[in-house]
């Protein structure tokens, strides 16, 4: 099975390449494929003739999407379209990566988390552009898997963000006398190596459609920072604050927990708790022995 990973040097892309190592893997970075350019995508697909395509490429800087709306839609919606069109043309199975931020604006938040069957109402340009990308994938490619995840952390760090939340917390905790962290946004943090392994399992099935895949359990950004500093034994005081006390350009969901309902319905195993993923991540990064 010939697998093409787009965004191969990104946070998730790097771990996907680790998981698929030893198989027939083609890993492409933005230097080799520009997803906003149909000709560039077509050229790569004609050259490599992939059987499975995993598209992790996105413009992920949520606040910058508010002011750089054209780029957000060009990459997250039209880029997704270009990959879907070319996947359909070569008959490949397309795995498209999406986000919990397509939710948040609904009148009622489901108490057990959003399922794949809930209707999304995004709050931000990032969320809207990612939802538009999903819709194009559904229309244009027959054999698709849309995988929504949340709060990614992986050893490579998010290229688009210049790192990830955990590394930022560790750095700031070493530099500052105290940290103030938002405590009223709840989600499920997810270790990209766990996500990549689960994606490889689902690819091996005949299941298609939309999947929510996150580590188990939920927490706030404050809880995630608390657990991180506790595990690596940094004593810097952490102060919980509200989103109002930390204004950002883009509105974030107060609760974007994704219930991994398809995995449940299909009798597939759920992912391990996020705290276990975090421990392995901190070890991998050399923060613990
Ligand atoms: N990070 C999160 O917390 C999070 C949460 C939920 C869902 N997601 C989704 O998960 C996916 C992966 O996120 P990530 O954290 O791994 O992000 P990342 O580290 O920024 O990786 C994204 C990759 O896409 C590439 N890319 C960006 N624009 C491109 C373009 N126009 N053409 C080709 N390649 C392009 C980037 O290359 P350059 O760096 O060279 O531009 C990078 O390699 C995204 O679809 C994102 O929406 C992320």
Q: How would you sum up this structure, described in words?
A:
The chain has 289 residues and is α/β, with parallel strands linked by helices. The protein has a domain at 2-161 and 188-216 and 259-268: 3-Layer(aba) Sandwich (Rossmann fold). It has helices at residues 11-19, 38-48, 62-67, 69-90, 125-140, 165-175, 192-203, 221-231, 261-265, 274-284; strands at residues 2-6, 24-28, 52-55, 93-99, 144-149, 152-153, 179-182, 186-187, 190-191, 209-212, 219-220, 238-241. Strand 4 (93-99), helix 5 and strand 5 (144-149) form a beta-alpha-beta unit. The termini are far apart. Bound molecules: NADP nicotinamide-adenine-dinucleotide phosphate. NADP nicotinamide-adenine-dinucleotide phosphate binds at residues 7, 9-13, 29-30, 33-36, 56-60, 75, 79, 97, 99, 130, 149-152, 158-160.
